[in-house]
Amino acid sequence: MDKVIQELKELQVGKVLENEPLANHTTIKIGGPADVLVVPKDIQAVRDTMKVVKKHGVKWTAIGRGSNLLVLDKGIRGVVIKLGAGLDHMEIDGEQVTVGGGYSVVRLSTGISKKGLSGLEFASGIPGSVGGAVYMNAGAHGSDISRVLVKALILFEDGTTEWLTNEEMEFSYRTSVLQNKRPGICLEAVLKLEQKERDAIVAQMQKNKDYRKETQPVSNPCAGSIFRNPLPEHAGRLVEQAGLKGHQIGGAKVSEMHGNFIVNAGGATAKDVLDLIAYIQKTIKEKYDIDMHTEVEIIGEKR
Ligand SMILES: Cc1cc2nc3c(=O)[nH]c(=O)nc-3n(C[C@H](O)[C@H](O)[C@H](O)COP(=O)(O)OP(=O)(O)OC[C@H]3O[C@@H](n4cnc5c(N)ncnc54)[C@H](O)[C@@H]3O)c2cc1C
Known about the structure:
Blueprint: H1 2-10, E1 14-21, E2 33-40, H2 43-56, E3 60-63, E4 69-71, E5 76-82, E6 90-93, E7 96-100, H3 105-113, E8 117-118, H4 130-136, E9 139-140, E10 143-144, E11 149-156, E12 161-165, E13 184-192, E14 194-195, H5 198-215, H6 235-241, E15 248-249, E16 252-254, E17 262-264, H7 270-288, E18 297-299
Parallel strand pairs: 2-5, 3-5, 4-18
Antiparallel strand pairs: 1-2, 6-7, 7-13, 8-14, 9-10, 11-12, 11-13, 15-16, 16-17
C-alpha cells in the first residue's frame, strides 16, 4: 500500500488519508478504517486515482456522503474514493442541469427550486450525493432520480469513461446498472427539469421536508431505510406490526419514529447493526413469511 500512497501523493490527486476511520464519513457514524481514503480534487484526479488502483491491482470503493452505508468494523481494504468537494460543480442551462457526482442532493434540489425548476422536489431531504443517488436510483414521494436523469458520466475500472443514457443506466426500484452489472464511478450527471411556478415548487419541498421531520429520525445518526420495501408491503409497517420499534442490540436501536430506520443510540458497532438486522429478518419471516432484503449497502472486510 505504501507505493500506492506514494504515487497518489505524487500525482497530487487531492486529499490522501491513511487508515482513515470511516465512521467519520458515514451518517450512522459507524465504520472501521479505510487503508487509504482519497478525496479527489477534480474529475481528472478520479481518473488518476483509478489508474494507480489498477496498476497495483488493489481494491477500490466509491463513496459519496455515506448516507446509505453500513461499513463493517474492520473497515475497507484498498482505496476508498470519496466524491465530495472537488466534484461539486453545477451549471444550469435553461431546463438542463449538469452537476458533479459529489454535489449534495439537498443543496441541488434547494438551489434549483429557487430558480423555478421542478423535478427534484422529492429529493429535498435525501442526504446523499448526486453520484450516490444515481447509483441507488434514490427516490421518495413517488419519484426518483431516473425521472430526471438524461445521462451520467461513468468512469469504469479499466480507466475508460462513457456517458450512459437513462436507458443504459437500467434504473429500477433503488437499483441501477452500476450496482452489479457495470461497476463504475458516477463523475457527473445531466438532468432535465421543467420550468414551473417557483412558489409552488418551494412549498412542495417544504411539505416533503416537514413530513420527513415528523416521520423519520432525521436528527439521529442513521443510514436511511435499512430494508427495501417487500412490495406491496412496507418494511417499516411490518417492523412496527411485529412490535420491534425500540428494540435494541448493543448501541443499535430500531427507531421509535420509523420501523425501517436503525439509529446509532450511542457507541453502536457494525456488528450491533448486523445482529439487529438479522433479528428483524428472522422475526418477520416467522411472523409473516416475508423475506426482508437490505437497502443499506453493507461494505467492508468481513473477518
Ligand atoms: C435520514 C436519511 C433519509 C434518507 N431518505 C432517503 C429517501 O427518501 N430515499 C432514498 O432513496 N434514500 C434515502 N436515504 C439514503 C441515501 O441518502 C441515498 O441512498 C443516497 O442516494 C446515498 O448517497 P450517498 O452519496 O450518501 O452514497 P453513499 O452512502 O456514500 O454510498 C451508497 C452507495 O452508492 C455508491 N456510490 C456513492 N457515490 C458513488 C458514485 N459517485 N459513483 C458510483 N457509486 C457511488 C457507493 O459505492 C455505495 O454502494 C436516506 C438516508 C438518510 C440518512
